[in-house]
């Protein structure tokens, strides 16, 4: 794949706003919806009506309404947001945790839909579609040699559960054009990326968001790790922007003991709701470590705060994002929706971790540069805390409110030679595209390699590293190659993922992870 230019930010800003319910009155714009007391609302409604009837040019009144809604919400807080009709379906599917489709990971390669991998156990795998296949037609709709936007492509591949789509593929390895009927089915969107053992007694679970299915995924992973004999658990919430509060609560309930406070919420009327752990819980005794960073937000902070304030485990990493506002969502009647902040949440010690939001723009959502310049990403002593917002955990330890969760054990951003930025990039889609294209030319050969031989092939020389250097340069990416042996290891990991499985991929990259190394060091020092 030749990309015109790719700009790689050091860190990906997270815009977090998740929740449920807004008053349905925003659904109506007719005069009848407004009483005499609501003259200001009536004024807005009349203005739109005047524009529709009298304005000299034709104007799309729907777009005016969208602008108006966005303008109103911009005067509130950064997390009260409008979701357009075109965006709502993908947002809803992401939070629901599944969709109905054919189950493939793909990207557009030279104006053709190329299959990186089929989803394990999904409709395409069952039907016989393979990694490397090019999709030529969905029924009679041509998918190659033209520009297709994602909405159009998805509309051809998604459909009703049980419906069939005829996919014509080109298989490069056998130089065949095949017509394959794929029966659409529910395809999961995983929120638990992986669960595995990182040492004999330590389990690891990585959660990327808190969706409807997350607790079930987490609980299944936890029970599996327990059956493998783990005594300690690492929950990785790095770059997890949040999601459903009640899902974070359910996970905390598995870890905290009966009647321990998990979270408090308070609305504008001062009503306070407290949520406590119940007597059920499948990991109430083993040691717990929670990994966070500057992109861990909202529900991630609820879970980390509950563990920290109850002295249940150790929070490891860097100060979290700082979102202590609760949103609720309601459809506006035309396929769009609004998420409105309806309450603040507080950790068990009573602290609000919402950071100030006088600036509601990009600086609010991406503080990385400010935190980097202040030194707090690489020096724990540089983290600014408000002495006036001092609280105490269950055992009397001091914690602070006013802007995120400060970890118990600090792990600095790996700034040397741009190391952490490079390794974040090495886990991006760009690397998976490079590996796919390399595999595409050697799939029959490399696909037959054992893991050991594949490792020798990639790590034993600089052939793949040099090819990757050329690929990045031609794509306009400036990447620091000082840590060349580690870069080769990440390339090896991605080859393993595409040829073999996800768990093996994570076993390789976690061996280079600074926070995981810190946890394992702590474990050894405590033994």
TrEMBL record:
Q: Which SUPFAM superfamilies match?
A: ClpP/crotonase, PDZ domain-like
InterPro entries on file: ClpP/crotonase-like_dom_sf, PDZ, PDZ_sf, Peptidase_S41A, Tail-specific_protease
Could you tell me which residue ranges the PDZ domain spans? 88-140
Keywords (alphabetical) are: Hydrolase, Protease, Serine protease
Question: What Pfam families does the record point to?
Answer: PDZ_2, Peptidase_S41
- The source's domain of life comes to Bacteria
Q: Which family does it belong to?
A: Belongs to the peptidase S41A family.
PANTHER family cross-referenced by the UniProt entry: CARBOXY-TERMINAL PROCESSING PROTEASE CTPA, TAIL-SPECIFIC PROTEASE
Which NCBIfam families does this chain map to? prc
Task: Please give the name of this protein.
Answer: S41 family peptidase
Organism ancestry:
Bacteria, Pseudomonadati, Bacteroidota, Flavobacteriia, Flavobacteriales
